[in-house]
Amino acid sequence: MAFKIIASQCTQCGACEFECPSGAIELKGENYVIDPKKCTECEGAFETQQCASVCPVPKTCVPA
Length: 64
Prior knowledge:
The protein has helices at residues 15-19, 50-54, and strands at 3-5, 25-28, 31-34, 61-63. The chain is α+β, with helices and mostly antiparallel strands. It has one domain: Alpha-Beta Plaits (2-Layer Sandwich), CATH 3.30.70. It has a two-stranded antiparallel ribbon with strand order 1-4. A two-stranded antiparallel ribbon has the order 2-3.
């Protein structure tokens, strides 16, 4: 499974893009998106998902 960003809640701050260890997050148009093929949910690298832990808006980076 992968994580996704709820676009209507995202403030486009970009914090998640820089914290993603697999490079799965990028700005497409006006929204940040997570490539499900690249997202590893940070397994093996961190105990918690980095996108969700740095996001200033709770429950914006969530399991897909």
